[in-house]
Amino acid sequence: MSDLLAARSQMAVSLGFHILFAVVGIGMPVLMVVAEQRYRRTGDRLCLDLAKRWAKGTAILFAVGAVSGTVLSFELGLLWPGFMELAGPVIGMPFSLEGFAFFTEAIFLGVYLYGWERISARAHLFAGVMVAVSGAASGIFVVIANAWMNAPTGFDLVEGRLANVDPIAGLLNPMALQQTLHMTLAAYAATGFAVAGIHAFLLLFDRQNAFHRRALSIALLVGAPAAVLQPLSGDLSARAVAEYQPAKLAALESHFETGTRVPLVIGGWPDMEARETRYALKIPGGLSFLAFHDIDAEVTGLDQFPREDWPNVRIVHTAFQLMVGLGTFMALIAVWAGVLALRRRDLCSNVWLLRALSLAAPMGFLAIEAGWTVTEVGRQPWILYGVLRTAEAVTPMPGLIVPFLGFTALYCLLGVIVAWLLYRQIIRSPRPTEWSRVYAPAEVLRA
Amino acid sequence: MPEVTLAGVLAGVLALSLNAYVLFGGADFGGGVWDLLASGPRRGRQREVISHAIGPIWEANHVWLILAIVLAFTCFPPVFARLGTVLHIPLTLMLVGIVLRGSAFTFRTYDDERDSVQRRWGRIFAGASLVTPVLLGVCIGAVAAGRVGPLRAHTTFTESFVDPWLTSFSLAVGLLTLALFAHLAAVFLTLETHDPDLVEDFRARALWSGLAVFVTAFGALLLAPRHAPLMGAGLLGSRWSLPFHVATGAAAVAVLAALWGRRYHLARMAVGAQVSLIVWGWALAQYPLLVPPDLSVDGAAAPSVTLRLVLVILGLGVVVLVPSLVYLFRVFKAGPSDSVRRLPKGGINS
Ligand code: HDD
Ligand code: HEM
Questions:
Q1: How far is A74 from chain B (nearest CA, A)?
Q2: Which atom of ligand 1 lies at the shortest distance from residue A238's CA?
Q3: Quick one: residue A43, left, alpha or beta (phi over 0 = left, psi -120 to 50 = alpha)?
Q4: Measuring CA to CA, which of A44, A157, A414, B200 is 20 to 30 A from A24?
Q5: Residues B125 and B111: beta-carbon distance below 8 Å
Q6: How many other C-beta atoms lie within 10 A of the C-beta of residue B2?
Q7: B200 CA to chain A: closest CA distance, Å?
Q8: Where are the beta strands (DSSP E) in chain B?
Q9: Contact yes or no for A366/A16 (Cβ under 8 A)
Q10: Please, which residues have CB within 8 angstroms of residue A422's CB and are 6 or more apart in sequence?
């Protein structure tokens, strides 16, 4: 394994790990605020229980998010000193804003966790809202940094250095809006579906459990609308990619020859030698339509780029298909649940819906990992699209396979521990001492 | 007095956030050291006090480190790139320490079933607390010694990536950092419990670790002229150095005297002053260099638009954070201490 590959892999593993906790840090506070709001409105103690448990889970995951985020901030310098030296003055701006968002989040999470009996109901709910808002803000700021790597703006390149730097223009880069919207929705969809899925699964065995019923309905309330909007927002992203990162679009669609009325390639396996996609379903004019909303539009193919500037088409295309497939499935379930809810049916007694939701529990997170693979691998060989190559940015330090393997092992260990801890503390139904509230009387159940 | 530049102001903020990290984060690390060294009949209760004092939300203290990193790569990008390259090995090891320590502590706190698993978290937490400060000190020592220069061509791996930091001076600074953090924590801990026996335990620890600070500081100072000539010159030769040394020494003696006389609030203030003076002594001795021998505050600074915007962001941040922190204070300082105990320390202790 070359040092460059080791560095890229280490970055990928670290980000892939951090994003899981970051997403929870964005999504869970919304769930807990909704639960608390229900409790305040209806006096339903089960919702209070839920809010408290979710807050505790958020606290555990927040800590892991914090340590893995710290690792990332160091890694930017440990692995990519060439990139940071060049880009620091622009990319530092969103990161500084993000720093304050974390701080606010940490403070209000403290108030929320330990303030139940100390502050007024409204003040407590407000603290929860602040956690949710600052969590979303931290995500938005980092993703702006990433969007800038995809569509760099706000500087002139003079002799290999950035000149006439305008960090504000960098913040307002042309990918920023699409990516932040798509990511924020992704966080709500993924968390909502994960929580809904877990409780749906448990409901399959314990149909009347009021605790799981409440949890399911709140999680769907947050996750389902986001899942329905996600394909629309993905379409916005794809069109921006078509305009600003044509090589990435060509790779994610496995589109080799430039042409008009280009078909949409669904599935299949790119054959790099023959420059075509085998075993794929092709919809005539589909790609032209999706990318430019005109079935006759010309779409740039990979043939317009030198071979060494292609990203890895197989990985990018497969990851993209995976994301879109999962997204479509989630959106369909969300619509189904929405229709049932509008008709005032009891979602929790529909076995097929519960099964589908259980199946969908990990899908949001998988789609997020796949989506980031599309974004990051699809940008290769550039670290800063069109400006700086990843190979020029990597540290001269040899032997990078050692930290790569070390951190990978560390993250595996942490992942196992966190999963086990969450099970022990959060997911498991309340203990017998709390049962009187769990098996609440029937009229409360209908609420 | 040299003219104060925009870059100089931001370098000052950088030193300030390091100062805050050393004070709050340092005390947390020191707490881990005393967890490891808990002994005697009250060892279990010592550990409890430590764990309540650190609080499960140590992240608030931790944010100072993040702030320092972000300021470094935004305002002084070459500095960040240089440190990440030359100090790759100790920084990576330090990161492992930070990860293990933070997560083990959280797991121990939230995993409230008291069993052998919990004790294992405790051991990992404590071990990582011991090693991480040493590595932090080693990195600081390497910078102070002026050994973190540009990479040269035709050097071996060891010459480029090991020799800069594996020196007796760096190790001495590493030990000094450890002793300082432990001392800081022990002094703070005397105020975290009402049990007179426990207070005595922590007082004894504070006195012993104070002695260790003297010994290690003296060792580092002895090695400085040979290994860190620049530092030596800055610390010993310039106009401000004598009053500065007198002040630092006075603070150190004041801590010990206050501990001796059981005036713990005084001791806490004095130890805070002592640690801050050490950080600023280091910063001033290097000024105007950030990473000797070649990266200076003005030379390594980002374009002035960036610097100005960072100042604006810092200002906005203060506008949001100060009221939030004050609120946190007001909510939690007023009540009985057993429900306050789990709060972020940076928030209520400063
Ligand atoms: C719950 C997660 C999720 C779901 C259901 C979807 N996506 Fe997505 N997608 C992401 C989560 C995600 C992501 C992980 O959040 C990415 C990575 C970078 C980004 O901004 O969002 C992403 C990136 C991303 C990109 C690349 C943006 C870039 O490289 O700058 C495109 C073109 C799409 N998505 C398109 C879609 C489409 C057409 C979907 C239709 C169903 C879809 N996504 C569902
Ligand atoms: C290079 C990329 C990244 C870096 C350097 C980074 C850095 C960090 C750091 C240092 C923290 C800890 C702050 C603390 O001490 O509380 C953190 C937490 C967080 N990060 Fe990241 N991050 C990156 C990528 C992302 C991405 C892609 C997202 C989201 C979309 C994200 C969202 C968050 C959130 C929401 C938190 C709050 C903590 C939590 O809820 O777990 N980060 N990040």
A1: 8
A2: 32
A3: left
A4: A44
A5: no
A6: 7
A7: 30
A8: 289-291, 295-296
A9: no
A10: A57, A60, A61
B59-75 vs A81-114: helix axis angle to the nearest 10?
150
The amino acid that residue A165 corresponds to is V
Which residue from B minimizes the CA distance to A164? B303
**Is A246 near ligand 1, meaning CB less than 6 Å away?**
no
Q: Report how far residue A19's alpha carbon sits from residue A25's, in angstroms, rounded to the nearest whole number.
A: 9
Among A64, A73, A89, whose Cβ lies nearest the Cβ of B69?
A73
The answer to whether the CB of A234 falls within 8 A of the CB of A178 is: no
Contacts of B65 in chain A (CB under 8 A): 70
Q: What is the pLDDT of residue B1?
A: 44
Farthest-apart Cα atoms in chain A, separation: 74
Which pairing describes strands B295-296 and B289-291: parallel, antiparallel, or unpaired?
antiparallel
Please give the model's pTM, rounded to 2 decimal places.
Answer: 0.89
- Residue by residue, DSSP assigns A308-350 as GG---HHHHHHHHHHHHHHHHHHHHHHHHHHHHHHTT--GGG-
Pocket (CB within 6 angstroms of ligand 2): A 18-19, 21-22, 25-26, 61-62, 65-66, 69-70, 72-73, 76, 102, 105-106, 135, 138-139, 142-143, 183; B 59, 62-63, 66
The residue type of A376 is E
C-alpha–C-alpha distance, residues A283 and A431, integer Å: 54
Ligand 1 proximity of A323 Cβ (cutoff 6 Å): yes
Helix (H) or strand (E) holding A259, with range, is: strand A259-260
For residue A31, the SS3 value is helix
* Distance in angstroms (rounded) separating the CA atoms of residues A400 and A43: 56
Q: How far apart are CA A347 and CA A349, in angstroms?
A: 6
What ipTM was assigned to the predicted interfaces of this complex?
0.86
Q: What is the pLDDT of residues A302-320, one digit of tens each?
A: 888 888 888 898 899 999 9
Backbone angles phi, psi at B316, to 5 degrees: -60, -45
What is the C-alpha radius of gyration for chain A, rounded to an integer number of angstroms?
Answer: 23
B52-83 pLDDT per residue, tens = 777 645 566 778 888 899 999 999 999 999 99
Record: contact B320-A90, CB cut-off 8 A: no
Convert the pLDDT of each residue in B217-252 to its tens digit: 889 888 887 777 776 666 666 667 778 888 888 999
Of A99, A118, A397, the CB nearest to B335: A118
Query: Looking at beta carbons, which residues of chain B come within 8 Å of A168?
Result: 309
Residue nearest to atom 1 of ligand 2 (CA): A72
AA letter at A363? M
Query: Whose alpha carbon is nearest atom 43 of ligand 2?
Result: A69
Evaluate: CB of A249 within 6 angstroms of ligand 1.
no
What does chain A come to in residues? Answer: 447
The whole-angstrom separation of Cα A139 and Cα A260 is 38
β-bridge partners, B210:
none
Atom of ligand 1 nearest to the CA of A249: 32
* Cβ within 8 Å, pair B81-A85: yes
Nearest-angstrom CA–CA distance, B252 and B259: 11
A248 close to A362: Cβ distance less than 8 angstroms: no
Cβ distance A59 to B339 less than 8 Å, yes or no, reads no
For A63, the closest of B102, B111, B314 (CB atoms) is: B102
